[in-house]
């Protein structure tokens, strides 16, 4: 359906070829683009009461000209015009610089509206803009006038007029898109009225209402795309309903060494629901370090094996692979489940054997690095893929699996908690499960912040822990983009500490070590043979040494909050009280605030929320990979409630068959069509 709003802006009078090009530079090509080019702010032309105006304020005043203007010229181009003006009972002076042409408009007794800077002591306004009887401006006197982002040859006055013209000619074509019951329930201004009002609000409150309506619409349409996409994916996915014997899974859970937390129970149910449904699961499981994701993974793997499938779990490093292997083995092997390891360091022969047993179905669950999903690895019947700590499992991996005739359920696990608003935006096409609760009895890591000059004091604290038989991590400064300097730093720090703690063994770990060397160091640290581990951030992910109770992080201000939190998660894994010391001399207020936040909370979700507030949503992920949508009006930080409402309402909407058929939703379906969401979808 061709909509007149999709016509080029050149349809309007006053838009020639050149202006068309300039407008295109602002992203305005169609009438719709123009109408949806919203003001970034308003210039306030509301007439003020003189007694309330502060010195130096920009203000709009209305009054009557009293007497003749006086004009003075300086040189060729400079001039000053002054005229007296009566406002109420006060006489003030209005002054124009270098605008000699206004003189002819300044007739005694005439009413004028002037905008400019107020000088309270001289009772004088230096006028920058004037409105009078025969000017266009007069229509807008007393208003809030829109200010738009400009560029090229487009001036503000031109754009205001053009939008005004477009509203008059085409404003009537603006259809309501949000279903009527929702417009009513959320008290939304009708669409056409909102677009008129956001450009030319009669007052602040109406402007606010218009903005609210448009914000809601943006979030609603954004969520509609996501929900429609999800629904279509589910209907068309080649996934299968795994016949999971739920009773057996329940028994398995009861036999675990601890009861699950409520949060774990909830996410287990969400995952099993997906696995037993006929679509392919695409779910993100987020939970703070130590919140117990591994056991949830084990339950899902148990379920897939009992349903007659194989499971695979992918991790970023070999160290993690081995850790997972041993924890999964201890949970699953007693139930007759064969767990194997496929890592890059296997010999060719071992690798071949393992692949063969996978293909024959002799191995039920395989743990591995990305080597797992390679062209020469075949499964007999792969039902579930879990990835831990990274999102490198993407379209390409799915394609490889599909080429082998597999469409497994996929679960992504991450310990980097993301505030819910961002999670449902950035990972919009995934379902999100959250473990937002720690197992009972955990002692939060006590965190403190010291300046570099207090380092000796920190070392004494560390010695006390070592004397108790505990172990410590020392995380070295992060030097941006220089792996080499990171390593050098670690080597220096190691040398110093080895000297200082001569009665203990101080180990060293950094990215330049071979996988084998790293492994050895970690083994020694795990076994308690190394007491202090000096490390670059390679120790970050997943390492589990419960006897380590002390962590020092050098130059903590160089790390992001999320990363600091990850690092800190390496301690506090046992029953003893653990400590984390940040060494930092942050230069900025935000830097100091970040250190304080780290000391105040150990809740990863709260931290990420605070980080978001400190940095803003754009920076939160780092701009490039953010995947966050750009909104014209909505703001994920402030409008998160509306986002949640929009999510719920759109999910309900697309689940209703009427949405896909009834005429009243045609505008929304057209919108999805325009956005390419319905490509390849056949309605029957
Ligand atoms: P994550 O992978 O989320 O960082 P883990 O799965 O490694 O966390 O769990 C951390 C520790 O907590 C493990 O030692 C695990 O056995 C234990 N744990 C997990 N769930 C519970 C629970 N519900 N109650 C007590 N301990 C638990
Ligand atoms: Mg883990």
Automatic annotation (TrEMBL):
Domain Helicase C-terminal intervals: 451-613
Keywords, in A-Z order: ATP-binding, DNA damage, DNA recombination, DNA repair, DNA-binding, Helicase, Hydrolase, Isomerase, Nucleotide-binding
Entry EC no(s): 5.6.2.4
BP term (GO), one: DNA repair
A Gene Ontology molecular function term of the record: ATP binding
Catalytic activity: ATP + H2O = ADP + phosphate + H(+); Couples ATP hydrolysis with the unwinding of duplex DNA by translocating in the 3'-5' direction
Enzyme class: isomerase
Residue ranges occupied by any Helicase ATP-binding domain in the UniProt entry: 274-435
SUPFAM superfamilies xref list: Nucleic acid-binding proteins, P-loop containing nucleoside triphosphate hydrolases
Top-rank taxon, per record: Bacteria
Free-text function comment from the UniProt entry: Plays a critical role in recombination and DNA repair. Helps process Holliday junction intermediates to mature products by catalyzing branch migration. Has replication fork regression activity, unwinds stalled or blocked replication forks to make a HJ that can be resolved. Has a DNA unwinding activity characteristic of a DNA helicase with 3'-5' polarity.
Record-stated family: Belongs to the helicase family. RecG subfamily.
Protein name: ATP-dependent DNA helicase RecG
Organism per entry: Brevibacillus fulvus
Lineage of the species this protein comes from: Bacteria, Bacillati, Bacillota, Bacilli, Bacillales
């Amino acid at each position: 359906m061709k909509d007149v709003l999709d016509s080029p802006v050149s349809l309007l009078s006053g838009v020639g070829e050149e202006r068309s090009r300039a407008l295109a530079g602002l992203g305005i090509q169609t009438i719709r683009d123009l109408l949806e080019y919203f003001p970034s702010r308003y210039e306030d032309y509301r007439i003020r009461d003189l007694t309330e105006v502060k010195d130096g304020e920009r203000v709009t005043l209305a009054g009557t000209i009293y007497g003749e203007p006086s004009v003075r010229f300086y040189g060729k181009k400079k001039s000053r015009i002054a005229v007296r003006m009566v406002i109420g009972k006060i006489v003030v002076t209005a002054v124009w610089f270098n605008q000699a042409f206004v003189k002819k408009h300044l007739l005694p007794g005439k009413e004028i509206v002037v905008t400019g800077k107020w000088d309270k002591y001289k009772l004088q306004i230096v006028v920058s803009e004037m409105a009078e009887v025969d000017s266009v401006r007069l229509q807008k006197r007393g208003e809030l006038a829109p200010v738009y982002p400009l560029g090229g040859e487009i001036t503000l006055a031109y754009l205001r007029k053009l939008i005004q013209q477009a509203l008059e000619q085409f404003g009537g074509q603006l259809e309501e898109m949000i279903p009527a019951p929702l417009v009513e329930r959320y008290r939304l201004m009708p669409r056409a009225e909102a677009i008129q009002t956001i450009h030319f609000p009669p007052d602040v409150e109406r402007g606010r209402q218009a903005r609210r309506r448009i914000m809601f619409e943006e979030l609603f349409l954004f969520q509609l795309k996501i929900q429609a996409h999800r629904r279509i994916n589910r209907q068309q996915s080649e996934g299968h309903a795994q016949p999971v014997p739920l009773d057996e899974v329940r028994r398995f859970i009861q036999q675990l060494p601890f009861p699950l937390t409520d949060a774990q129970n909830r996410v287990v149910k969400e995952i099993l629901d997906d696995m037993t449904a006929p679509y392919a699961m695409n779910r993100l499981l987020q939970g703070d370090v130590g919140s117990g994701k591994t056991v949830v993974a084990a339950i899902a793997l148990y379920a897939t094996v009992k349903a007659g499938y194989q499971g695979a779990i992918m991790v970023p490093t070999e160290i993690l692979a081995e850790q997972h292997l041993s924890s999964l083995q201890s949970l699953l092997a007693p139930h007759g489940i064969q767990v194997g390891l496929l890592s890059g360091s296997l010999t060719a022969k071992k690798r071949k054997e393992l692949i063969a047993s996978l293909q024959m179905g002799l191995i039920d669950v395989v743990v591995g690095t990305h080597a797992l999903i390679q062209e020469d690895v075949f499964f007999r019947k792969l039902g579930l893929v879990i990835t831990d700590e990274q999102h490198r499992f993407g379209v390409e991996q799915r394609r490889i699996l599909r080429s082998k005739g597999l469409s497994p359920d996929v679960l992504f696990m991450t310990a980097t908690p993301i505030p819910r608003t961002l999670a449902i935006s950035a990972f919009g096409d995934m379902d999100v499960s959250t473990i937002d609760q720690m197992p009972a009895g955990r002692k939060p890591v006590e965190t403190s912040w010291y300046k570099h000059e207090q380092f000796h004091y920190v070392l004494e604290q560390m010695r006390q822990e070592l004397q108790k038989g505990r172990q410590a991590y020392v995380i070295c400064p992060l030097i941006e983009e220089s792996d080499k300097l990171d390593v050098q730093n670690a080597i220096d720090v190691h040398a110093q500490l080895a000297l200082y703690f001569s009665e203990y063994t101080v180990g060293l770990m950094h990215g330049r070590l071979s996988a084998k060397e790293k492994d050895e160091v970690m083994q020694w640290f795990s076994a308690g043979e190394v007491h202090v581990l000096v490390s670059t951030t390679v120790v970050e992910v997943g390492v589990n040494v419960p006897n380590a109770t002390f962590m020092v992080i050098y130059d903590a201000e160089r790390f992001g909050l999320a990363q600091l939190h990850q690092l800190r998660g390496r301690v506090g894994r046992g029953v003893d009280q653990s400590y984390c010391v940040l060494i930092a001399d942050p230069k900025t207020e935000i830097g100091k605030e970040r250190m304080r936040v780290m000391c105040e909370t150990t809740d990863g979700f709260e931290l990420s929320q605070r980080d978001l507030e400190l940095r803003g949503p754009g920076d939160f992920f780092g701009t490039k990979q953010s995947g966050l949508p750009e909104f014209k009006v909505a703001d994920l930080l402030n409008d998160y409630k509306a986002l949640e409402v929009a999510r719920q309402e759109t999910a309900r909407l697309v689940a209703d068959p009427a949405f896909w058929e009834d005429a009243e939703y045609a505008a929304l379906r057209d919108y999805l069509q325009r956005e390419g969401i319905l490509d390849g979808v056949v309605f029957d």
